[in-house]
Amino acid sequence: MKSMTGFAYTEKQQEGVSVAVEIKSYNSRFLELFINLNQQLAPLEPRIRGIIAERCRRGKIEVNVREKKDGARFSVNVNGEAVRAYSSAAERIKSLLPSAYAEQNLPLEAFFQLDGVVEVEKEGEDEDSAWANIKDVFFETLEKFEREREREGLHTKENVLSHIAVLERSRDTVVSFLPRIEQAIKDNIKARFVELAAENIDENRVLAETALLLMKYTIAEEVSRLSSHLSAFRSEINGGGGVGKKLDFICQEMNREINTVGSKTPLVEVSRIVVDMKDAVENIREQLRNVE
To answer: Which domain holds residue 59?
Structure first.
């Protein structure tokens, strides 16, 4: 079991190349990947996206990779047409301003902030060379990220299993009440027999009334199905992989059986146990929202 939340960061410098990788994730119903790379690393996005998708099934995951080369060569080009166009526009603007403003000149450094004036070209590298520079740091960070998700997932698993244990103990307590529930059904049937006999009702009606009472109050089938769901839950949670959605579905089925037990039982003691069981299931589902 893995948590959908995690964080890992690694920064290393070797042979004049500095690489920093950050991976963090949040809860999400589906897998959402956001890859943020240096311009020179942009061709690596499909490769990085594929590696993450192989390891993660759900969650909003952000991957940030930065590479910096010491002494990397780059060139700065000036777009003369853009400079002349901006200068002309500045002169026109000055002609429209009061004299106090018209005397001011556009600072030279302001041109560096204008779109299209200065173009910086860094020394390029092919995709394989770029990957060779970052892959060791990337995989180291990814392993840290996975260990963090597994550590948090283990904590969640322990918490969830503690609630499963509560459900199992409650189920056993409900089973211990089955004889009393059956006796209550028999008492109700006897009371109906007396009432129906006084009214001279025929045998077919007596049988029909008996069948209705048994259908209304017997909870043996619900308890049996609940036991099956509990067993399936334990098997699934220990199976590994992305189990969050499957476990949540099993919780829905358990909740369905528990609600039916609560609506059919004639005993107040069992009704109280049902409240505790529903609370345990809700706590489990809350925890599963963090699980992949």
So the answer is: 6-72+125-150
